[in-house]
Design a protein that fits this description.
2 copies of one chain form a homodimer. Chain A contains 17 helices and 12 strands. Chain A is of the alpha/beta class and 395 residues long. Chain A folds into 2 domains: 264 residues, Crotonobetainyl-coa:carnitine coa-transferase, domain 1 (Rossmann fold, 3-Layer(aba) Sandwich), CATH 3.40.50.10540; 81 residues, formyl-coa transferase, domain 3. Chains A, B: GO terms for molecular function: CoA-transferase activity.
């Protein structure tokens, strides 16, 4: 009963670096048979991103490409395209994150591929999408974070902008791409045909802007950065303690009451400036001046005990090392080893989707460049041409 | 041919506020028949979150719950649970984001519901997951952002921590929940039975930490915040200009060369401190001192033209208002109106997944609390009991 939920799903993977590989990583974790097509000799750009493991494998590449197969094909060569089209015939899904137009220039655009395989789901993840005036502009996560608004509401008021510390532009595009692929697979059960999935990093940034759009749409006030504060809930932020910070999240008036009693500031409950959440938000700076000296009296650990005992949502700001021995992270098996071709081991984030009747854990095997080329060629009947294809630079 | 890809999919939606409603919003945009079950008289907590439209509808609620149906059921009442179980019988998917144990206390846990409907996919999105020592702790986005590491790598070095300006803890959990549901639906085609999808906000934060985990796993250096900088690519950050900021993203040595020529600093190409990306990253502070005065010579708009003409990826830092007339956002139809029960209109982010043979645009109709209760009760054969059920506080 416990098997991989997407076992048997064939995915042809032309992706590089992050947004696309993140999408096919999730598909691979779920059991899809992902064949990663890489450029002979060089491979995915991220194979060159440090830091490296002792055997020379990029840690970045390893964590994103576990559980995939790697074949090499130089798609600029006619023979490589012939082999590629054979793979398309038997694939359910193709994923690429080239700049729009790249596949068409190779003669491998969706219009061509659907003639070869009408059931193919062709997913393209790009910076700005397959349409619109920006479609051919170069995009990196950083560009999209700046253009899409998230950087304008992240950081401290009056200070320089900051980037979200992870490549959220790439990662959300990867997640929406997976949703698009699985939705198209659902629809294919009914229609029998595939379709094109077009996901843009910029569009995805708009889609995650949450209440910033609603607030601007209603009151035309341009949202700015608020440090650790929430725009409309108070107190809901980090306070400096004797030795660090503690986050307090009072989402409603009941929690506000518990909070005031827990920190022994019951007098605030009678203060009409703080009687409701909208009032507390309006008077947030006055409240902060009152609370600051209170929090500096104890350590973060002491405050966490006090607030937890009072039933007030609170937490620390963990650095990444803290996650490696965090009891909940360990209990959920969220950090697992992946294994490089030479047997080096690296801790990576596991798949966060837990299914009751299916195995969704990452498959730890990281492929060497072209490790599966011979096997895949043999399955297509090109096995006897392997040496010639190497000599010609096709694989 | 062009229809909603998930049309016919029946989703029973018990979610509140953000992570769960974000997941069912995507399902509704894709055409699923989402029946949102709310508490009589009060409804989803987010109906009380400002700002409000003229008719009193919360803009926050409206943007997340467009295209869903709303029924009221007080699940603490026996008769409400009877009606609920009738709905479970005909549903494909149930989504809830209660604290673990809540549904069991109501006698509506997954073990019970799967007896009623073995094909049901039961998706639970929670702060810490259904297992582990933290399972019953209260969680808000802010707590999870702090605990999961992302806050420790977002912000300026040496300055206080900052929150990612959107509720990325909730939103990524919502996205992974959708992926879990669609994966379980895919597997159900083969097995004929449903299963439980268990997604934790904290797990999802680990899953998006990207190279921060790989870097720590390899070199045991704890990653910290870097302002707008990328940890391993240089130059890849925002520089202050005469009137704002410009983001520059030189992802490889070719772009570095184009960049130096574009800003008329060809001498940097001969400087061995900057000869490779690892060297530029090592000497990033020296490089920044050289580049700072250069960027202050011109405006952001001027730099964008110069860098674009040179083929160097670059971009502005847009505030949210800029998105409302951004040519690419408009071309991609990423901002669309939703319509409240009284006919008020509000701009919201559209679904970013574009499918070639299906309509994935948001359905703009926002439900009033309990607007569809009568219709749904009638479909279940309880229509004649409507007034009694209201009187008893069941609906």
């Amino acid at each position: 009963m416990v098997q991989k939920p997407l076992h048997g799903l064939k995915v042809l993977d032309l992706t590089r670096v992050l947004a696309g590989p993140y999408a096919t990583m999730i598909l691979a974790d779920m059991g899809a048979n992902v064949i990663k097509v890489e450029m002979p000799g060089r491979g995915d750009d991220s194979r060159a991103f440090g830091p490296f493991l002792p055997d020379g494998t990029s840690a970045y590449f390893a964590s994103l490409n576990r559980g995939k197969k790697s074949i090499t094909l130089n798609l600029k060569k006619e023979k490589a395209r012939e082999i590629f089209l054979e793979l398309v015939k038997t694939s359910d899904v193709l994923v690429e994150n080239f700049r729009p137009g790249t596949m068409e220039k190779l003669g491998l655009g969706y219009e061509k591929l659907k003639e070869v395989n009408p059931r193919l789901i062709y997913a393209a993840s790009s910076g700005f999408g397959q349409t619109g005036p920006y479609r051919e502009k170069p995009a990196y996560d950083m560009i999209v974070q700046g253009m899409g608004g998230i950087m304008s509401i992240t950081g401290e008021p009056g200070r320089p902008p900051v980037r979200v510390g992870v490549s959220i532009g790439d990662i959300t595009a990867g997640l929406f791409t997976v949703i698009g692929i699985l939705t198209a697979l659902y629809q294919r059960e009914e229609t029998g045909v595939g379709q094109m999935v077009d996901v843009s990093m910029l569009d995805c940034q708009i889609a995650i802007l949450e209440n910033a759009i609603a607030r601007y749409a209603v009151n035309r006030e341009v949202p700015g950065p608020l440090g650790t504060r929430h725009p409309s809930i108070t107190p809901f932020q980090a306070y400096p303690t004797q030795d660090g910070y503690v986050i307090v999240a009072c989402g409603n008036d009941t929690l506000w009451e518990k909070f005031c009693r827990a920190i022994k500031k019951e007098e605030l409950l009678a203060d009409e400036r703080f009687a409701t959440n909208p009032l507390r938000t309006k008077n947030v700076e006055i409240l902060e001046e009152i609370l600051k000296p209170v929090f500096q009296e104890k350590t973060t650990a002491e405050w966490l005990v006090i607030l937890e005992n009072a039933g007030v949502p609170a937490g620390p700001i963990n650095t990444v090392d803290k996650l490696f021995d965090h009891p909940q992270v360990l209990a959920r098996d969220m950090l697992k080893e992946v294994i490089t071709p030479a047997g080096d081991r690296l801790v990576a984030a596991n798949n966060p989707i837990k299914l009751s009747y299916a195995d969704t854990n990452l498959n730890p095997v990281v492929p060497a460049l072209g490790e599966h080329t011979r096997e895949v060629l043999e399955s297509l009947g090109f096995g006897d041409k392997y040496d010639d294809l190497v000599a010609e630079g096709v694989i």
